[in-house]
Amino acid sequence: MALQITDEDFMELIAGDKPVVVDFWAEWCGPCRMIGPVIEELAGEYKDKAIIGKINIDENNDVAEEYGIRSIPTILFFKNGELMDKHIGVASKSLLEEKLKAIL
């Protein structure tokens, strides 16, 4: 299951030694609901290699503002606290998996 990330724990999570994938989403967002199951699948498949989580921008908007998130879903890929890649909009599992594998 994807980790529920908040503004409070975000910086600590991305600074760790595992790559981190963050899905910025909201309840009212149709495309976010479409990509949600893909994020959950990746979270299960890569649970030992990466942290894969979701941050609800309606409840936690500080991080979204900091990273200039204007459209959702937006998925950010971090390694050692550094933003390595991003994807805006709905994406296939294979595309997201390819981006994740590139930072493992």
Give the low-pLDDT segments.
Answer: none
Q: CATH H-level name... which superfamily? A: Glutaredoxin
Q: Helix amount, in percent?
A: 25-40%
Tell me the domain tally. 1
Describe the 3D structure:
With 104 residues, the chain is of the alpha/beta class. The protein has a single domain (3-103), classed as 3-Layer(aba) Sandwich (Glutaredoxin), CATH 3.40.30.10. The chain is built from 4 helices and 5 strands; from the N terminus they run βαβαβαββα. Strands 1-3-2-4-5 form a 5-stranded mixed sheet, sandwiched between helices. Strand 2, helix 2 (30-45) and strand 3 form a beta-alpha-beta unit. The longest helix has 16 residues, at 30-45. The radius of gyration is 12 Å and the shape is globular. The protein starts with a strand and ends with a helix. The relative contact order is 0.25. The mean pLDDT is 97.
